[in-house]
Amino acid sequence: MSSAPMHLVPDSSRHGSVEEIDDTPHGLVMRLARSDAAAITAVYRQHHLTVRAFAQRLVGDVEAAEDLVQEVFVALPNAISRFRGDASLRTFLISIAVNHAKNHVRAAARRRAALSRLALEPEPDNDCPEQDLERRQLGDRLVLALDELPLEQRVVVVLSEIEERTSGEIAKIVGAPEGTIRTRLFHAKRKLRELVGGTDG
């Protein structure tokens, strides 16, 4: 997208004149509130990769993540009325994804539970099958352990440990006090340690 904050495009309703299209963050928000399709497209182009990466980290499944991304941008025109400008539009999109995640998390967890048995089968002609098997088993244990967490704890783990966001940023995304975020993260990490390390005592 052009670095210029305003684009001039022909206005078909007035021959020889132009209409200003505001692609600044504030302008996009105003246009989204009017369900401007071009604004939705512009925001999608700017932020869909970030939203998709977060969704896949959260649900761990490509198909479920893609469905969640589509839900986020379909919901955006109605949700934009809640946008107060105290966080970036990108952060606001992540918060919408969190609000829509529950069903996708459950569906993805069921898929992974079914597929995890296949992941335990060593691949033929591997140079180091024992090491590869151990690595896959640990990965499976981590993924399945994450599935065991309540959604609110899973969200803070992904945002904090994978996306490396601060507790303040996470608080804005999920709409909870920073103290609550830190408490959720503490309990989530403790649960993960129990689940992943349980077989080793």
Can you offer a commentary on this structure?
This protein is mainly α and 201 residues long. It folds into two domains: 1-105, Orthogonal Bundle (Rna Polymerase Sigma Factor, Chain: A); 120-201, Arc Repressor Mutant, subunit A (Orthogonal Bundle). Helices cover 69% and strands 5% of the residues. It is built from nine helices and two strands, in the order E-E-H-H-H-H-H-H-H-H-H. The chain has helices at residues 25-33, 37-59, 62-79, 89-99, 102-119, 129-148, 151-162, 167-174, 178-197, and strands spanning 6-10, 18-22. A hairpin with a 7-residue loop joins strand 1 and strand 2. It starts with 5 loop residues before the first strand and ends with a helix. One of its GO terms (biological process) is DNA-templated transcription initiation. Belongs to the sigma-70 factor family. ECF subfamily. InterPro entries: RNA_pol_sigma-70-like, RNA_pol_sigma-70_dom, RNA_pol_sigma70_r2, RNA_pol_sigma70_r4_t2, RNA_pol_sigma_r2, RNA_pol_sigma_r3/r4-like, WH-like_DNA-bd_sf. Residues 44-111 form the RNA polymerase sigma-70 region domain.
What sort of overall outline do the alpha carbons produce when their principal axes are compared? globular
Count of DSSP E strands?
Answer: 2
Count of individual domains: 2
What's the level 1 CATH class of the largest domain? Mainly Alpha
Structural class: mainly alpha
Approximately how much beta-strand content do the residues carry?
under 5%
What do we call the CATH homologous superfamily of the largest domain? RNA polymerase sigma factor, region 2, helix turn helix motif
- Mean pLDDT comes to 79
> What is the fold-level CATH name, i.e. the topology of the largest domain?
Rna Polymerase Sigma Factor, Chain: A
Organism: Labilithrix luteola
Keywords: DNA-binding, Sigma factor, Transcription, Transcription regulation
Protein name: RNA polymerase sigma-70 factor, ECF subfamily
GO molecular function, one term: sigma factor activity
